[in-house]
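Notes from hallway chat w/ T.B., transcribed later so I don't forget. T.B. wanted the structure written out for a chain they're using in a teaching module, and asked if we could keep both sequence and structure tokens in one place. Agreed to drop them here.
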Amino acid sequence: MTFKSLLDRWQQREAATLTAAEYPVRLAVDDAARLHALVEMFPGCSREQIITDLLAAALKELSASMPYVRGSKIISTDEQGDPVYEDSGFTPRFVELTRKHRRKIAAAVKE
């Protein structure tokens, strides 16, 4: 989800499926002021929805920004026959841990 798509979503007032757990946070004064400005600009969206959407967009951008780090193991070959090496950076571990926690959280939502 991009930040542009967030603005479109807030105008359309779409809601995402939420977890059972809450994640309380304290914001810096400037961030809180920007959050309140967004709530005022999009009165159909709750503060919680805006925080949730902003966090989702930031996490997606963060995961996309994790650099590829070439490992030593060849995992396949590309269409030209050149070797493709495993990623030994943050991405594989992040994906693995995300899947692990998603299964647990999804199970709690169904209960």
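Follow-up for T.B.: The mean pLDDT is 88. Might be a good example for the class.
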